[in-house]
Amino acid sequence: xxxxxxxxxxxxxxxxxxxxxxxxxxxxxxxxxxxxxxxxxxxxxxxxxxxxxxxxxxxxxxxxxxxxxxxxxxxxxxxxxxxxxxxxxxxxxxxxxxxxxxxxxxxxxxxxxxxxxxx
Length: 119
What we know:
By secondary structure, this protein is mainly β. The protein is built from no helices and nine strands.
């Protein structure tokens, strides 16, 4: 959950961790990508207000690069792993950035983002 202040002079930033666990035997390559969310544009994601037509535009960043499916200037999480006890666990950080100065009303905002893991 984030709090967004439309009067703030600087962007709102929040960091979240994402953990992927999967069964594996031996080494493997893991790739995790994010879809474009409800806006279909990973460079300009949109949270929709629950009870009004208000929106908040934001972006997700992975290691300072736009997080997406690896196309259109976006990047996906990719690493090689060795299994431990038949499992691989990958944790990485994603930063949400909502630019300052958006005309957002007081409300609850949501968006859905699909994550796709390939190994």
